Amino acid sequence: MKLIPTRLADVIEIQPVRHGDDRGWFSELYRRDVLEAAGLDIDFVQDNESFSATPGTLRGIHYQLDPFVQVKLVRVIRGSIVDVAVDLRRSSPTFGEHAMVTLTAEAGNQVLVPAGFGHGFCTLEPNTQVGYKVTAQYSPESERSVRWDDPTIAVPWALDGEGPTLSDRDAAAPLLADQPDLFD
Fold first, then answer.
1. In angstroms, rounded to a whole number, what is the distance separating the alpha carbons of residues 92 and 83?
2. Which bin fits 29, alpha (ψ -120 to 50), beta or left (φ > 0)?
3. Of 88, 93, 95, nearest to 61 (Cα)?
4. Choosing from 63, 98, 119, 132, which is the catalytic residue?
5. Cβ(128)–Cβ(81) under 8 Å?
6. Does 121 fall in a domain?
7. Which of 11, 90, 123, 132 could form a Cys-Cys staple with 99, CB 3.0–4.6 A?
8. In this structure, are residues 112 and 31 in contact, taking their beta carbons and an 8 Å threshold?
9. Is 119 a catalytic residue?
10. Which neighbouring-strand residues pair with 78?
11. Alpha helices in the chain (DSSP H)
């Protein structure tokens, strides 16, 4: 596994090695010892998967509060996405900034979204399937969202001139400046 820092040091792209032969390929998607050797002691407790039928489906920018703050390890099972992590730690020098990584099933790359970050993605292909591991169970009471098109974050989502397909909750999410619950 190759760990690649993004423009935000705490957000890491992970490129698993694929070992191929005439049958296809094999890859280790997660190795606790590799992450621990890089100083990342992470205990995943839940696996999630989403399916989006159309390109331009945008999910996020989501986060959960204590005690259900989540670290996420995100990968694409089928299709491709633009994946975004937003620093929501008020005391961070990169507060409100984002890192963006294109994840594809073909490449097999992943992104590690640390605690204190919001997370979202936009699908680039039809019938895209995304899987991710999280370090805390889903808690509707602690879940929050930041508006996908917040001008202070200014994420350049990969939308072909059309607006995204959003859930009602994501369409109504507040701006970053209106968030009472962020990380210190």
1. 21
2. alpha
3. 88
4. 132
5. yes
6. yes
7. 11
8. no
9. no
10. 129
11. 32-37, 168-171
pTM: 0.93
- Indicate the pLDDT class of residue 128, thresholds 50, 70 and 90: very high
Range(s) of the domain holding residue 68: 2-178
* β-strand partners of 129: 51, 78
Domain tally, the chain: 1
The pLDDT tens digits for 58-91 are 999 999 999 999 999 999 999 999 999 999 999 9
Rounded alpha-carbon distances, angstroms, from residue 51 to 59, 146, 183: 11, 21, 29
Q: What contacts 36, CB < 8 A, 6 or more positions away? A: none
Residue 125 falls inside a structural domain: yes
In which band, very low, low, confident or very high, does the pLDDT at 3 lie, cut at 50, 70 and 90? Answer: very high
Residue 54 lies in a domain: yes
Q: What count of other Cβ atoms lies within 10 Å of the Cβ of residue 53? A: 10
Q: Collect all residues with Cβ–Cβ distance below 8 Å to 150 and sequence separation of at least 6.
A: 61, 175, 176
Question: What distance in Å separates the CA atoms of residue 136 and residue 68, rounded to the nearest whole number?
Answer: 5
Q: Pick the catalytic residue from 30, 62, 63, 119.
A: 62
Which CATH number belongs to the domain containing residue 116 in this structure?
A: 2.60.120.10
Query: What DSSP state is assigned to residue 162?
Result: S
132 noted as active-site residue: yes
